[in-house]
Amino acid sequence: IISDFDGKVKEILVKKNQEVKEGETLIVLE
């Protein structure tokens, strides 16, 4: 996963008030 894209996904999750931990974005993208 590209770091910049991964970061954007995390930003979206944070905006939805969800706790984001390292690796969780992988599950979201799946």
Topology:
Blueprint: H1 3-15, H2 24-29
User: What general form does the structure show?
Assistant: flat
Number of H/I helices: 2
Q: Can you give the mean pLDDT? A: 62
Uncertain regions spanning at least 5 consecutive residues: none
**What is the count of β-strands?**
0
- Strand-residue proportion: under 5%
Binned, the helix content reads 55-70%
What is the string of SSEs from the N terminus onward? Answer: HH
Rounded Rg: 8 Å
Total domain units:
1
Structural class: mainly alpha
**Could you give the distance between the termini?**
11 Å
Main β-sheet description = none
InterPro entries: Biotin_lipoyl (IPR000089), Single_hybrid_motif (IPR011053)
Protein name: Lipoyl-binding domain-containing protein
Organism: marine sediment metagenome
Written description of the protein model:
The chain is flat, with a radius of gyration of 8 Å. The longest helix has 13 residues, at 3-15. The chain has two helices and no strands. The protein has helices at 3-15, 24-29. With 30 residues, the chain is mostly helical. The protein has one domain. The mean pLDDT is 62. It starts with a helix and ends with a helix. The protein is 63% helix and 0% strand.
Which terms summarize this structure?
mainly alpha; 2 helices; flat
Quick structural summary:
The chain is mainly alpha-helical and 30 residues long. The protein has one domain (1-30).
